[in-house]
Predict the structure of Dihydroorotase.
Amino acid sequence: MKRNTLIKNAKIVNEGIIFEGDILIENNRIKAIDSSISVKSADMTVIDAEGNYVLPGLIDDQVHFREPGLTHKANIESESKAAIAGGITSFIEMPNTKPQTTTIEKLEEKFAIAAKTSYANYSFMFGGTNDNLDEILKVDPKSVAGLKLFLGSSTGNMLVDDPEVLEKIFSSTDIVISVHCEDEATIRKNLEKYTDEYGDDIPMELHPIIRSEEACYLSSSKAIDLAKKTGARLHVFHLSTGKETSLFTNKIPLKDKKITAEVCIHHLWFSDEDYKTKGSRIKWNPAVKTAKDRDKLWEALLDDRIDVLATDHAPHTNEEKNNPYTSAPSGGPLVQHALVALLEAHHKGKISIEKIVEKACHNPAILFDVEKRGYIKEGYFADLVIVDLKSPWTVNKSNILYKCGWSPFEGNTFKSRVTHTFVNGELVYNNFKVLDVKAGQRLTFNR
């Protein structure tokens, strides 16, 4: 029989306010929230939050967990363990696996894997190509997070570069279309220039010059123009330039927006100055760019032109990352350290805890119509995270949970830590220990 849980003495963060109180969990839901709750029951576990903050579990709308087909880098089990250690209780995974998730059959195979192995709640993006519109039209909007289109930096045949097909896709579906925006022609031209000069061993510092501001802005602006033309619901992933932020608005509430944007932790933390020390460890697509771009991204996040915080968690092995520029893959692991990095920004006065919760918990739930998650409310699923803001720890090999075994934050000391994570009412993580409880459920969508 499952024990119920009472969380006492918490600073509860929800919908822009922080209040002290208790949370009662029964089965997998939040039963009650009050200033003081007393329950005498033999099947009750009481956890004293000791005045620490309780947040809704984070919803990460963009991860690459590499299963199936690329499991030497990661898999759903290993990366979902890292996610719950980092306070992420729900994830939306991308379709560029092997095989790619571009048919309903392959999509359901991934759901079957996650049902057996995931520690966190899960959903998957369905992948669009130049020739799978018939499959796209079969997607059930109540049970699938959305559609992912690569308008640049694709793998396999997932680059959607036929304008007629793109317009048909935008015109044919009401579900959220999430896009990776980088103009391939611009990138190819820049890469050719530097390959001629350096061969394969291009200095890593040139990555943001090759995958330039121009490439990002050109692609993002075209996608937005097409969304406006067709009325599509468009979400632009991982903005990396200040210039792109001008394409988005804060004049209307998120629930009414047709065009939204996301920013990832690495574009808010690193800058091009870090390539000298981090090298390929911070090679992402789109590229980490200038400190000025980083400042503009923070500005747009805080004034609500950017709607969502995410990770774009995309692990590769050390051996793969150690290759020269042209063969070192882009991407890095982030789910375990995203929340503590955001809390570090809070300590530095960049962002409030309430704003972190808005952007990483509430807004993904609004944007993707996630059912009964992303908030601390009675009747909602009990996806909860307790964080201690005064408990420093240092990232090192011994506490990294990613299957790839490394982190761009190695050696970094964070002031805050996740002490407890609950998924669907079950304690799944407790003070650096992942418990053997696979409580993740398939996300559903209120559409």
Notes: The CA atoms of residues 253 and 304 lie 9 Å apart. The first strand starts at residue 4 and ends at 14. The chain has a mean pLDDT of 96.
